[in-house]
Amino acid sequence: MKLNTMTVVACCLLLSGCSNYEWGWYVLDPSTTQGQTNLKFLIDGFSATISVSLLSMFFAMLIGFIIALPALSTNPYLRGVNRLYVEVIRAIPVLVLLLWVYYGLPTLMDISLNHYWAGVIALSIAESAFMAEVFRGGIQAIHRGQHEAAHALGLSYWKTMRLVVFPQALRQILPPLGNQFVYILKMSSLVSVIGLSDLTRRANELVVNEYLPLEIYTFLVLEYLILILAVSQGVRYLEKRYAIPNY
Question: What predicted TM-score, i.e. pTM, was given to this entire model?
């Protein structure tokens, strides 16, 4: 059974009457000036959340593809470099990496780094290790006969990868790519701890002003839910659009 957004909203409204707690939904009532101001303040956080997530996804895919290539080599040292990077990065919690990039990287490299780019860098690095495994698995899933046929036609290694292997692998890895983008969207909430005014940060600031955490955080849950459901539907459409036909 599919769960649509209106069903989720209706369930939340019904649950609000299932306890003795007096809900203060007036804080987000669009018919009042206060509610309109608060809603606009919360919804404006979408831009930061989406932009950080999209940039992080782009750079993570780029780094992940580069890191995945040594894993395809017959050279054991190159494969070792791949395994070392993947295992080290996957072992570091995202929040720890985020704090290290924001506070440690400027000190180490004597550079100025704002919270936006610190968030993009940290999420990109954290996600790149998972992307490397996604690309490696997708490329290795292509039958060896495809490589041999391309070599028989006189294609170089890079032309074989670009024209034969990678287009097929992209179809294979589309579902895990969508899954990883959803993961980045959720992990982007962590950038609020370094001051980026995303959805979570704005909700925290509004809680401090209004003293109604349950109502505001419930609305925050709905914001992320709507965003991620929209992304999931888009990924499902792409999966069907570019699905490998079964003959």
Answer: 0.85
